[in-house]
Amino acid sequence: xxxxxxxxxxxxxxxxxxxxxxxxxxxxxxxxxxxCGGFATCSSCRIMIVHGVENLSEIDLDEENMLEEAExxxxxxxxxxxxxxxxxxxxxxxxxxDWSKGALRELNALPSLSRAIIRVIVEARARKAGEEVILPDxxxxxxxxxxxxxxxxxxxxxxxxxxxxxVCEGSSD
Length: 173
Ligand code: FES
What we know:
Elements: E1 3-7, E2 11-14, H1 21-27, E3 46-51, H2 61-69, E4 76-78, E5 88-91, H3 101-108, H4 112-128, H5 139-153, H6 157-169
Parallel strand pairs: 1-5
Antiparallel strand pairs: 1-2, 3-4, 3-5
Helix pairs in contact: 3-5, 4-5, 4-6
The structure holds FE2/S2 (inorganic) cluster.
């Protein structure tokens, strides 16, 4: 049976092949938002794939449309749509942090994939440092640092996933 692991809680367990990520989370007692009830119409069940993207079902048209509308490129999936076919490591997006306008301006100037990954990196590091809220503009240098790291990797999805995993695990600060 495929093994599914969730960051940041590090809960993990085996689930039957063909289980959606959303159902797997429920089986493991993890709460994932799913405002539309699993119909691919809200994107609240978004989840970041840290490892094992190849072990999920293909993205169908409904999911693709919703991901596009919500500006959530690879490595994000909708947990109500993605079927688990092998081992996966997933990261549940944190609840929104309060970003200063300046830091958001820095972030919003970036392409959507970089923006999503940099936001995860900056927020993971902020939480590790005990900063629940990124204010005032201390996030600007943090965004610049994460941008440098992401730019250095380019569009190598495996290396980007490894960077996110390392940050989430605290081995790249
Ligand atoms: S629960 Fe709404 S898109 Fe998945």
